[in-house]
Amino acid sequence: MAFTTLPDSTPPPDPVAPAGPRRRFSGWRWATALLGGLLLGLAFPTPGWAGLAWLGPGLLLFGAVGLPAGAAFRFGWLAGIVYYLVALRWLLHIPFPAGAIAGWLALSAYCAIYPGLWIWLSLRVLRLNSSGAETFRAGLGHFSGRPWFTRLRQLLFVAALWVALEMGLARFLTGFPWSLLGLTQWRNAPLLQLTSFTGVYGVSFLLVWGSVALAAAVTGVAYRPVNRFGWTADLRGPLFVLLLVVGLGFTRLVRPVPGDRRQLTVALVQPSIPQEVIWDSAANPARFEKVFQLSQQALATRPEVLIWPEGSLPDMTREQLAAMTKLFAGTDTWWIFGSADSEPAPADAGAQWRHYNSAFLFTPNGRYADTYRKRRLVIFGEYIPLERWLPFMKWLTPIGASFTPGNGPGAFRFGTSNTLHVSPMICFEDVFPHHTRAHVSPETDFVLELTNNGWFGESGAQWQHCASAVLRAVENGVPFVRCTNNGITCWIDEFGRIGDLFSEGAGQVYGAGFLRTTVPLRTDGAPRELTWYHEHGDTFGWSCVLVAVGGVAQAGRRRKPTV
After folding, report:
1. Among 268, 278, 540, 559, which is disulfide-ready with 198 (CB 3.0 to 4.6 Å)?
2. Which 3 state secondary structure label does DSSP give 338?
3. pTM, full prediction
4. Considering its fold, how many domains does the chain have in total?
């Protein structure tokens, strides 16, 4: 992909700043960076004003025009840290104040590097920083004077670059794909059908392309002679693609559902146990009694499966285990729950035991049937980095020792002749698109997510986590069932629509109770028709990486002095 410009012409005087490279950016640049970051952060739940995601990237890119490389990066980093401080403010609810504040600031500062890189590299490739265009107004004039097709290719490039950086954010240092831009559109079911081909990255691409095209159209009015609709030239491409995607999405949503699909009645217990109680061993009897009573009420509705979330089950005494076995006796109800699991460690492991965050399947008569062990662990929440060599690190966290990751995806098979096939996931594993794919097969009836968002009080974390599950359901074409400690307990169909949601009066989703619901399964047990994304993975995302690397490399060669 080539990026060309028209020959430079003498720019008009710039009333905003003097000509020549600037090492600092002025007050209006600060305001633009802060506003752009705020728009992006508020697009995530809560409040979840998704429309703001269509404005933020364009405002930031064109607000940085004319800045030298270092200032361009700082501009993007400032916007990024506002973006993530707002989107990730739920971290402050962790009942470990020093660690919560430190984690919030450190994680936001790290994630902000990616918007900083996006601004810097975009301006470099488009030749809109101070080495290619001395000032803000001159840079806008240079860009607006380029042929329409050149502007189109360059706007497509900056959208691909955004996706390439999101691919890195989702993988580098174990990855943190929690706040990928495409997640902001999680309630827009027609648009989300795009993810069955491209994954979440396709929605991010379309958001950024539409946003920068809008900014190009608006700024171009002052620099190009236009007729009545000529100013819309840059907008026509993304608008056409958006209408096409939404139209195809509607056709997918209205497709008739087979009437002979099997169904499973499940009871999802949401105990809403505060995290401080989970850490307090003295509270175990009251904690067990709360879950036991909710289970009694749920079993009275005669579900086929009773499910407890992650973090709900304390270390049970023999008497408590006997009480649970008696409760299930004669009910024909299977039992799935999350709990810690341990086994002796090898002699050379440096510890006597290995601990796992696990999910268990028990038969209706109270016998153990299967286990899944969580594969992706939360840093400082489930494992302490460099614990063997830097033991003092454990004092920075509320956990006493690290868990061990499991070996691979699991599948709970149960029901008559083991015809039901459920793929369990634990905690935040489902926020990783490439990881979730491995848990789905043509035999999967649904993905079961057991999670404990009680760490974060009653905050936007629960809704943001649910948004990830919605995207994963559409990407793979398989329903998700979510059983959570304090929200959002629900099931989601393969098109990303929430089929049933636990709530108390006035829509309160964080309280204690249970949800009895019916989940549709595969038609007559036949293999599920999975999506293009599930079969081919992040092909679109890696294509954007190649485009980004090629554009940046070409820009480097173009700037290299000739001998």
Report:
1. 540
2. strand
3. 0.91
4. 2
